[in-house]
Model the fold of this input.
Amino acid sequence: MAWRPVHELAASGASRREIAELFVERAARLDGRVHAFLTQTPERALEAAERADRAGGGRPSPWAGLPVALKDNLVTRGLRTTCASRMLADWVPPYTATAVERLEAAGLGCLGKTNLDEFAMGSSTEHSAFGPTRNPVDLERVPGGSSGGSAAAVAAAMAPWALGSDTGGSIRQPAAYCGVVGLKPSYGRVSRYGLVAFASSLDQIGPITRDVRDAAILLGLIAGHDPRDATSAERPVPDYLERLEEGVRGLRVGLPREYFGEGVAPEVREAVLGAARALEREGARVEETELPSTRYALAAYYVVAPAEASANLARYDGVRYGFRAAGATSYADLYDRTRQKGFGAEVRRRIMLGTYALSAGYYDQYYLKAQQVRTLIRREFGEAFRRFDLLLTPTAPTAAFRLGEVSDPLTMYMNDICTIPANLAGLPAISLPCGSAGGLPVGAQLMAAPFEEALLLRAARALEAALSLQPWRPAAELEEVAP
Amino acid sequence: MVIGLEVHVELSTRTKMFCSCPADFGGEPNTHVCPVCLALPGALPVPNRRAVEFAIRAARALHCEIAAETKFDRKNYHYPDLPKGYQISQYDQPLARNGWLEIETEEGRRRIRIRRLHMEEDAGKSLHGEGDGEATLLDFNRAGVPLVEIVSEPDLRSPEEARAYLEMLRATVFYTGVSDVKMEEGSLRCDANVSIRPRGSSELGVLVEVKNMNSFRAVQRALAYEAERQARALARGERLERETRHWDEARGVTLPGRSKEEVNDYRYFPEPDLVPLRIDPAWVAEIEASLPELPEARLGRYQEAGLAYKEAWTLVAQRELGDFLDATVAAGAPLRQAANWLLGEVSARLNESGRPLAELRLTPAGLAGLVALVEAGTVTPTLAKQVFARMLETGEEPAVIVEREGLVQIRDEAALEAVAERVIEANPKVVADILSGKEKAVAALVGQVMRETRGKANAAKVNEVLRRRLAELRQAEPRG
Done:
């Protein structure tokens, strides 16, 4: 039962209380091994379920009473929101993120707040101040990051679906590593109000789900203009389910050469090319293409993202909220000590990088250059989407690696190489399981032009149906304790 | 001496620059705050359209060009009362550029160029030593209040010019209605960039920034002090340092602030939480069309009507006086005469009472009526002052007061002759003096007549009647 996607659970005839209890119990029993959650809120999940059961036909939405896990960088009123940082270990926000508010309005209940790389900076969920999350498929491996907690919660069926955030691949890459579906919407599609900022011009909230239909449903619940976010788009939200099953006949799919080159594991390449053939069988026209600026994307990202992060994280000064270091003798001293002790190494590294890239004398050389590259990449995608409806690539160059295996930051950053371009260009992109490498899940990524989520989901659904893969089962150790 | 001014003006919008918290001055500390202006994690700014409108209004009043597209930037620096650790400001694409203001200088009217006007948000306020012991308390009510910064070109040449520019700037912004521009409440703040150079040299000297000047007088004094200090230092052969100095009002000196080792690198970059603003020219035109007559134009008009610069400026700088003057003129009074009343009696009353003009029981129509009565000779200037006093007490029309209290001027010669006769009879000694050649003593008799008529007599007529009667007496006198 817990393995079924939400749309099937909702139609199963089970009461919402039964469904919620199922996940509450699994989370309570299994999370000791996975550590997907930083905070579990069974009472919130059960309360919402009971409310939905009582409401009967008067439910606010068809999904009312179903539980959802939330990445712990989405602020939740009255519920501690830590960003997996010592800095916010005890912070209880007085307000709720718009995306979460919308889920609450639809009657969904929060199951808990999930683990992440501190302030969403990382590709493995090892950089959490509260300890790493493990990949449910293989507990010795990372779940990917930074939404590793959300991906792992869904992969271990401790949550039926979850919200993550994606700045450079933070939804798609862990979804790929854990064998679930992850969608990064177009920039501006989902309000960022209440998402604790990492890099404002790149961040976007999105769903992590068991299947593509669930992704379409969850996106539909959180998408739409929000007057509290000046970057949120004033475009109507289409019905993502309406044409979901219409297939890919006649669609043009590009395979950009640069995403299949050096560093991409042969098994990953094969699995994604298999997905390409599946799309072709379904009637899509698949063709190789080129996106030459891709090779500069990683460098541009690692200037822009830390630059914005350095400013976004400047507010953690120990003055108004969050962690405050003891024993300071002046404001400057308080500031230094608080940030020295409150932030982990990776966050400090990125603040330093960003501060450097923006500082006098380096701005033109780094930040400005990076923004120019970004414009170039955006333009290149624009041209590509005149010739193709979709682009198909691997989500990550390899399958999940072992905990502690990658210690060099640069190698770690390479894991986002396939996902970063979509963030730089503001495109919607989805990762879905397409095969395996060494017994581990491999994700295929589809990208579309901005605000073409409906098309993207439709193609992803067609691919999912064509591949008809069995869901990834968690590690034997988890199966033992599972019912 | 070369001076450029950077002026911050707080806009009096109802809500803050990037959130919907009230932007009013005062309030219990930290009562006008929300996640956005406290920079809680996850909060995002949304620009206040009204603030942009106000900024455009001020910019057009200062003859600035409005950018077709403008964006916000982050100015990064740390201060405990700056909640985000950066200030949202504008860097390379300010809302407005290339404006000017005209000021009166020793060499006549001069145009002072304005380099740019941009929007930004205010920080909170640190209260030092007001809590327990040495604690610093923070009030974030002001954090996020919209400001415009108006930067002049280094076109000012003396402390007097700087003051004149600042006064003209203040009046202009005040006329637009977008700010109350009170220096004492911090809604107008001024920093100055000062350097000195040998006369005739075009090379700029070492720049010193002077901060913390809280009144027009302080600006003038601080700049004068700074010119003197820099000149002396150079005369001693010292090298000036590029630095920030603070004006100490009590001691009348500037003191060094941040040294150059600590010079801030603000690491400006485009604010990613906000999208660039496209400014619709039609909107600008609409805003511009709603501007009132501005101080420069009003000043010119008053000067053309014959007022001296100082008189005209007094009426322009105190907008309520100017407005009252225009309304009085509209009610039929000649500008010169109406201005005399406002600069004289009315100003005196206002200074006495310390109250605003609106609280005096005086209407433009009333003042125009009074001027008309004087013009028509119905009342003497002396009587007019009495009527004026009564008007303020009762709020009645001057004609009504004149009628009821019988304050009409006496021009009737027969009536005046009768009084003159009485006075002559009652003052034989004075008359004798006059007849013996002391012509000046006539004034004493005139005074007597005026007293007898309680000031109602027309002074010229009294003079005429008295002199005629005295001449008769002189002729009647036997020649000896």
Observations:
- Residues 216-235 of chain B form the longest helix (20 residues).
- The mean pLDDT of chain B is 91.
- The two ends of chain B are 78 Å apart (CA to CA).
